[in-house]
Structures are given as structure tokens and as C-alpha cells.
Amino acid sequence: MRVMTWNLWYEFGPFERRREAIRRVIARENPDIVCLQEVFGVRNGTEVRTFAHDLARDLGMHCFVSDGPWFPRRSSANEGEETAMGNAILSRWPIESHGQVTLPGKDSDAGYRKAVFARVTTPWGAWPFVCTHLNHRFDESAVRVRQVDALADLIRDLRGNSESDPPVILGGDFNAVPDSDEIRRLTGRTEPRHTNLVLSDVWEQCGEGDGLTWRADNEYQADANWPNRRLDYLFVSWPRPKPMGHPRRAWLTGVESENIDGRRVQPSDHAAVVADFRTG
Q1: How many whole angstroms separate alpha carbon 257 and alpha carbon 50?
Q2: Which fold has domain 2-277?
Q3: Which of 4, 148, 191, 202 could lock onto 274 through a cystine, CB 3.0 to 4.6 A?
């Protein structure tokens, strides 16, 4: 089973050309499940359109997209419209149930970051997936620790029987490097949120090279703070019924520019992570 995660960079940059570049990359990788972050969405009254729904339609996939938060669009040409930067899960197979949770913010109140989840009817049984995007500021590690704790609570509730049921696969932009407190808490290098529940970092297990997803060779990073960081991850929950869910290989995609109507365009400001998992 092939799973992909990618931050799509909202509607920034040359978005119309980037849309086609993103679609081409996903089609070429041919994933079964796609976790997407910074998905552009627009709402006018009760009508909602998102880039994730467009991709699902074009690729023949099922889709679930987070709802909001919605903000007024600034352009006077789009009066009455609201936009959102959301998360989404695309699936080759039907989604039998889905939902979203709001992650903690900087204060005691709930923040605006979301985690979406979907239980997918795969050929190997109902398989749970989670997609998320954590706070981005360099100095907000403590916030991200609270957010990964909320993710651990969600994964605990989704995974079922760890000795027999498919494990949870989690993808997202964590805005944190592998040796950060938040990633170490997820992977059991420090005390985890719950006993008998940690996550395996797929790139660490079977990726080749440094796996950098926030890269200095990306044209959109010309003025970026601290490029060359691994911020985007696929994880799989442990314990799990061996070998179900074991990652076999992992690689990056969306690193190179695409030729769109005779012009080269970088698909996103992040590279995507793709991995193949054992299903039994």
C-alpha cells in the first residue's frame, strides 16, 4: 500500500500552473492514500470548493477535507467569499468514516490547527489514517508537544486492537526536526503520551539520504529561514501485528520542477514524502 504526504502551499506563488504540476506528481506516484496540508478552499454562502476535491475528481479518488477555519477573502473582486487552508485525505478506496479534531493552540484555548482522520475500506480491512499540520514558529516546540499529545489521544482511539487490527498511519507537516522534543515524544525517545503506543518514523526506517523536505534548492526558499530541514513525515503506530504496516521503502517526490505549458514550475514549497507499506 502506497501512502503520500504533501504540503501544497495554499494558493501562493503561480498557483494555476502549480495546480497542474501537483496533479502530475501525484498521478505519477500513483498513491493509494494521500495526506494533504495547506489545501486551498473557498466558500461562498453554502457552496464550498477545495483543491483537494478537484484532485480527487481528476484522479478518481475519494476525499475528506477539514472544515475551516474560514476567513474573508481580501480581494475586492471576490466579495462575499471566504477561504480556508485545510488538511485532506484522498483515498483510492471508499472512506467508511471520517472526522476532524482541533489541536491545542498557544494558550489554554483551542487553536486553529486541525487533524483529519479517515477509516478506509481497503482490501486488507478497515484501515485508519490521520493527516495534520502543526504550528510553524521555530519557538513553539512546547505548543507542538501539546499538539502531538492530542494526536496520540486520537491515534489511541482509532487503532483498535494493536495485536490484530491495521495500525494507524499518520502523515503531515510537523514543522519540527527529528531530534525535537515533539518528534522524540511521538517516537518514544522520551516518555510517550500513552504506554504501549509510539510511532515509527518511516523515513528513519527505510528512507535513503537526509530526507530534507524544506530545501534550499527549492526556488520558493530563496529567502527562507533555516532551509534544509526534515519537517514532513509519515509515521505508523506501534505495537502492530507484524508485518502489517511495516514500511518497505520511502522516497521524496515533488523536488524537481515540472514543465507546464513550456515553462518550468516548482509544484510546492515543500517536497512530498512517499512510502510503501506491508499489508500482511
Answers
A1: 23
A2: Deoxyribonuclease I; Chain A (3.60.10)
A3: 4
